[in-house]
Amino acid sequence: MVPKPEGNAQFGDIVIADVTIRDGDRVLSEIKEYRGRLDAKLAFKDGVAERFGEQLRGASAGDKRMVDIDLSTAVADDSLRGKRVRGEFAIQDVKTLRMPELTHDFLHNFGVHSAEQFDELIHVLLKRRLEYLQRQSARQQVTAQIAASQQWEMPRDLLIRQARRALARRVMEMKSEGISDEEIRSRQRLLEQDILRTTELSLKEHFVLQKIAEVEKIDVEEADIEDEIDRIAEQNDESPRRVRARLEKEDLLEALAAEIIERKTLDLILDSAEYEDLPLDMEAGTPVTTVEMQTVPGEMKDLTVPPPEEKPEEKKEEGAAPAAP
Question: What are phi and psi for residue 4, nearest 5 degrees?
Answer without folding.
Answer: -125, 85
